[in-house]
Structures are given as C-alpha cells and as structure tokens.
Design goal:
Length: 270
C-alpha cells in the first residue's frame, strides 16, 4: 500500500514518530474498530480514531440525538437533534477524514446480535451507559476472544481498563455482576461534567491505537481512575488470579450471553 501525497501530509505527525512510522500508519489504516455507544465516551473516541486514520470504524447505538446530549457528546451538533446518533456520528467522521469507512448499527446490542456484530473487528470500545450492556460486551468479547476497552464516567469521576484475551482480567473478574436495581444513581439523577467524556473517551482511543500499533503498555491488569476535582489519576492493580472468574476462568459457569434487565441510564459511561 502506497500513501498518496495527501495521506503523507495528513498523517505526517504520526509518520515521524518512531513508534508509528509509515508501517504503523498502514496498520491503523488496515484496522477495524467497533465503538458501542455514540455518547459521551464514544463521541471523542470516534473522532480521534477517525482523525488517526483507523480504516474501518463501526458504531452502534439505537438512540437519536437529544438536546441534553450536546453538553458532552461532541460528535453531534444542534442541527442533528432528532437524527439517529450513528448517522450523525458517521457524517462527522466522514467529513473529518475521507479515508475512513464507517459502518453503522442503528439497533440495540443484545445477546442475539452482539457476537455477529463484533466478529469482524480487531478491537471493541465499550462506550455504553448502563451495567447490563457492559456485562454483555465483556462476556461476548471474552467468548469471542476480542480485546476491548471498558470505561465509565459519572459526576467528576471516570475509570477505564483494557482487556486482552488470555493476558488480563476481564470486567467480570473485577465487577462480578450488575448491582441491584436503583443501587447506583442514573445519569439524570447524578449528572456528569461534559469534559469527563473527553478525558476518558480520548484515553480509550489511545488504548485502541496502542493495541493496534503494538506499542507501549496497555491498561491490562489495571483499572485507571480519574478524579477531576482533585486532578488525580490512580492506577489500581487488578486481581491476577482469574481462574475462578465466571466467564474467563478455567471452568466458566457463564457459557451463554445474558440480557440483564436494563435501567434507563446507569451512572457509568454516560
């Protein structure tokens, strides 16, 4: 694959990096990344991945753009209110970088369709806003042996971790099962500062790029937390003994995907 003059100029700041170079940029252009959720996390992640030249980006979301989304979901504009989020996101990404092929899934991700949707992608980003979706994405990625980035945000706080098959604990190793209904405030109840999505969603994009390039240290085996009010990051080591995990352990007890009851909006990944 030979770069055009326009591509050499577009990706010049990548190409001069020794960790990327022309070879690395070609890896990015050949990569396929799926973003589940075109909201506060998925929006900045999608924009940075499109700008980076990820060749194929899938984006899945069943919702339409709402005025209250615009405080944090920067991929959408006021003119997009009422439009499917995946279409608004696609238009923004394609306008940003014509190299990128965007595949949209305007549907809910469920146990019935997730394995078929994720099968062709190299890396998955969990940008969802509820616990049932997060456990579903984790379990599907473990079963399909797909690496993914988990993240969540609420108020002025955020967290993220990266799962790589056979190399790190999964989400269920850390959080065994969804919390009881009403145990965690919804985003409408708790709120979230808009820029939190930018901070954590951008870190998800960074983890994705590092995984594709095969450079640096991923957040495998660690949970990174961020407190914006204290301007404090904390890297928490996760349990390394994962053989008893219900989904990724040596003798898994969860062998079928589960659609847990879904609240309107839980306080993670808004």
């Amino acid at each position: 694959m030979a770069f055009t003059n326009e591509q050499i100029e577009r990706y010049s700041r990548h190409i001069i990096l020794k960790e990327v170079g022309a070879k690395g940029q070609k890896k990015l252009l050949n990569a396929k990344v799926l973003i589940i959720g075109a909201g506060g996390l998925g929006a900045p992640a999608a924009m940075y991945l499109a700008a980076a030249g990820i060749g194929t980006i899938g984006i899945a979301d069943a919702d339409e753009v709402d005025l209250s989304n615009l405080q944090r979901q920067i991929i959408h504009q006021t003119k997009d209110v009422g439009k499917p989020k995946v279409e608004s996101a696609r238009e923004t990404m394609e306008a940003m970088n014509p190299d990128v092929k965007v595949i949209t899934y305007h549907e809910f991700i469920t146990s019935e369709n997730i394995l078929d949707i994720i099968k062709d992608y190299d890396f998955i980003i969990d940008g969802t806003d509820n616990f049932p979706a997060k456990f579903l994405i984790n379990d599907a990625c473990v079963m399909a042996k797909k690496p993914f980035s988990h993240a969540g945000i609420i108020r002025f706080q955020g967290q993220l971790m990266t799962y790589v098959p056979d190399k790190s604990p999964c989400y269920r190793c850390v959080f065994k099962e969804p919390p009881p209904k009403d145990a965690v405030p919804t985003c409408k109840q708790a709120g979230v500062i808009g820029a939190m999505g930018g901070v954590i969603g951008s870190l998800q994009a960074m983890e994705t790029v590092k995984y594709i390039l095969g450079v640096g240290e991923l957040l495998t085996g660690y949970l990174l937390t961020y407190d914006a009010l204290k301007m404090q990051f904390r890297k928490v080591k996760l349990p390394s003994d994962t053989h008893k995990c219900a989904v990724c352990g040596n003798n898994p007890t969860i062998t079928k995907l589960i659609d847990y009851e879904q609240a309107e909006c839980d306080g993670v990944g808004l």
